[in-house]
Amino acid sequence: MTRAQRAVLGALEGATGFLSAQDVHARLRDGARPTGLTSVYRALALLAESGAVDTLRTTTGESTYRLCRSAGHHHHLTCQRCGATVELEARSVERWIDQVASAHGYRVEGHTVELTGHCPRCQRRRTATAAR
Amino acid sequence: MTRAQRAVLGALEGATGFLSAQDVHARLRDGARPTGLTSVYRALALLAESGAVDTLRTTTGESTYRLCRSAGHHHHLTCQRCGATVELEARSVERWIDQVASAHGYRVEGHTVELTGHCPRCQRRRTATAAR
DNA sequence: TTAGTTGCAAAAAGTTTGCAGCACG
DNA sequence: CGTGCTGCAAACTTTTTGCAACTAA
Fold first, then answer.
1. Would you state the CATH architecture of domain A1-69?
2. Which residues contact B19 (CB under 8 A, 6 or more apart)?
């Protein structure tokens, strides 16, 4: 594992939700040994490929990354305001998927299930910012 | 409705699955009255906003668009090989979502559910191409 | 005439690649 | 020494914006 990969991993460990490559880079800029944007991208690509991090694409076209806490396949429930994320084991969703698929004669290979909303904390101290 | 919007709608009507803005533009290039890429983007943005088309982001970062057959909120089951798409009413998924969310104390604002696989036809005459 | 549409060219924004230098074994 | 990591700068891709010309009522 390269230095860049360790640094990126460290940045992701310190994060609550998903970080874009640029976010990661920003966090590393102030450290003792800054990491170039190029290396951040390269490290993220490798980590994603190895399954150590999840990748998500935002509606604005950025790729975002997050450390996988739970191994294996799972889904996310992300707070729009603070970025807090819950990983969901979605056995029941997957059951539904199989059902729906076979009803249409499809064999399902992959699926995306992502939920966004507001976490308990942000619901209480709701002030502004709240998105569409 | 502008000429560009009509042209874009026409292109989407002739498509089986999702088209990127560039795809739409390519299809219109050979017509009697080509439409500029700029206008394609503008038309797609307006159509998406008005709910006439769905938007999806590919893993490669392109936005893709497809005519909405059914009104209202729904999800997609897309064939990876031929692009055929089934629109799903996902009442049961949404029920699950509410359940999961309240279990974690979240209030859910939005969700993404997309399924990919192989349609009945492509399963039969399966040859190659099959992805990840 | 005038408000709105069009599309070229250029700018943005995010990501990837070429390449020379550096580090470490 | 040499292999491979690093990071600057430049290229690339997709999308957006400025602006002058055009279109249609």
1. Orthogonal Bundle (1.10)
2. B11, B12, B27, B64, B65, B66
